């Protein structure tokens, strides 16, 4: 391993030197993944809660499918979104392929099942405890969604973080629908793949370390937020 | 909200049960009950453990639907609230628990905090408004549940063994709260297996044993001359074991 | 509640500001090309010159040749620059492209462990070299991804009248770089385009063992996508790119590109 010790130095130089190309890549990575998490959260939380509260034919099947989709390989999600957004595909006329928007869509598809499925499980558990009281207070099922989501918030922070973890770590989907275009759709993970394929293992590892630090910082911030809420509300 | 601090004078609709029974997975848990609750009374639902007290309360409050028979209110269904043996409080501050109930009730946002604080004050919880409801003591939690019920302005208040897990001081506070509701014109339907508590509170008694309603009599008569053998044994303080449900 | 709302709003703003919405910049075309050109650094060298001359940005999607053809066939790329002459001609014949032209060439080289157990360095032709590898049953790492390089490698085995087989013949299904990484890890022989090899930074014990046979010639071609089949594409901009590649200016830019003082691509437009 002639390159291993220089990996840290390379990474350090890139970070401390605030290399503009690296900054652009880091910024885009965060923008794409955070926006994907935001969208998936806005859809996934109410969807998961509704799935926990409503009984309808096919509900069991839907839950099984959702749970299975948590393991959807990113490259398959990417391929599906590629076929949708390709000029020859049904949404081709919007010209989204090879743009950050396409990457956001692919990541939403990837993490929505995680957020919805885990929310469903947490809300259902909480509702088991609350159901009689909420019925007594006269809450309709629709009105229960915000009540339960808010009361499950400590657990849901972890759910959203799980989604963010998957979004920021995956490479298969953004590679296909983004195209890893320099300065346009290159993000941390695709840059790591590229540098690895060039044999620049030190640089690739350095980028990996930068990614790890960023993800750790965001997780730490969320953890603090959760701890604050926990201390405040017991 | 004008009625909150004055006794409610309008008549409370009567609750009528006709041959109401309940079974769960084919198992009969409550034999057909015919019953009428009216006036602004304090009705104590008594009986040994497993007699079906909680079940009857849940049917009456509408949390469960009867398997057979008919349960209805004479006239408009009144506002109701229920306080459970173990209070179910939201994972929020004491104050937020109350404002949530007001929001559900449809109280305008600008009025909620003032009303909630007033209720906290009334039940001796004013100092605890910012505390997470879940870290309050058992007695405080039950008082908070009562304060929440208070804000719903119920005409009928159901209480399911509200003091069974509390120490004497807390029991006293709950009983005082029940009196407060009653003085303001709320019908009380409360289950208990504590004879002394029943003697302190009851206007009339529903006595259940083994999933059957055995007596519905004014309190005095129940405590002096119960008609059923199980009732007599219960009053004597014998160990009454509920026979298996019908 | 307010804190959460503020956090969400913050994330939203971070997400919405800048590149996501700022798509309406300078005119650009999307070029489907191969990893070998991208990895060698050729594009980093020549694209700024074209952009300066024509005012057109070129966004490169570097994939395997098979995927590059597929992107172009579906109308997802404005231009195509690959190295599979017969594939390019078929692409034009099928009506997806309207024109193809030679742009440049580099060559393939045989790489292997410096110990050279199959004595490939002694070979007098590429078919001889492959025969030696097969006879020694020495590990050989193949791209196995239907790329231009993979197709060229398969043609060479055919010419040597050898049907390579496992366990010594290992199809990796990867790009050139990953294949070199893997070959380095298992001391295998491997065929690479010279550009990727010269720019490759993780050779470990691998070394260049055989080069120079005419059969190892690797021609790159630029294809103009058919305007009637995909009218939405930026054909005018793409035509400027195609013309620039073939112009004296473009050809000179290619010739000027070098890594470690070594010229990697040789312009040969007509």
Automatic annotation (TrEMBL), chain A:
Transmembrane portions of the chain: 33-54, 61-85, 97-118, 154-181, 201-225
SUPFAM superfamilies: MetI-like (SSF161098)
A cellular component term, taken from the record's GO annotations: plasma membrane
Annotated localization: Cell membrane
Gene3D superfamilies per UniProt: MetI-like
Predominant localisation class: membrane
Keywords (A to Z) from UniProt: Membrane, Transmembrane, Transmembrane helix, Transport
Family affiliation: Belongs to the binding-protein-dependent transport system permease family.
Protein name, as recorded: ABC transporter permease
Organism: Bisbaumannia pacifica
TrEMBL record, chain B:
PANTHER family according to UniProt: AMINO ACID IMPORT ATP-BINDING PROTEIN (PTHR43166), GLUTAMATE_ASPARTATE IMPORT ATP-BINDING PROTEIN GLTL (PTHR43166:SF9)
Membrane topology qualifier: Peripheral membrane protein
GO molecular function list: ATP binding; ATP hydrolysis activity
Protein family membership: Belongs to the ABC transporter superfamily.
Biological source species: Bisbaumannia pacifica
SMART domains, per database record: AAA
Keyword Magnesium (UniProt): no
A single cellular component GO annotation: plasma membrane
Protein name per Swiss-Prot or TrEMBL: ABC transporter ATP-binding protein
Source superkingdom: Bacteria
Record InterPro entries: AAA+_ATPase (IPR003593), ABC_transporter-like_ATP-bd (IPR003439), ABC_transporter-like_CS (IPR017871), MetN_ABC_transporter-like (IPR050086), P-loop_NTPase (IPR027417)
Residue ranges annotated for the ABC transporter domain, each copy included: 15-235
Pfam families: ABC_tran
Subcellular compartments: Cell inner membrane
Keywords: ATP-binding, Cell membrane, Membrane, Nucleotide-binding, Transport
Principal localisation: membrane
UniProtKB/TrEMBL annotation, chain C:
Gene3D superfamilies, per the entry: Periplasmic binding protein-like II
Entry-linked Pfam families: PBP_like_2 (PF12849)
Domain of life where this protein originates: Bacteria
Keywords, alphabetical: Signal
Record-annotated membrane-spanning stretches: none
Residues annotated as signal peptide: 1-22
Matching InterPro entries: ABC-Tungstate_binding, PBP_domain
Key word Signal present: yes
Domain PBP, residue spans: 23-249
Name of this chain's protein: Tungsten ABC transporter substrate-binding protein
Organism from which the protein derives: Bisbaumannia pacifica
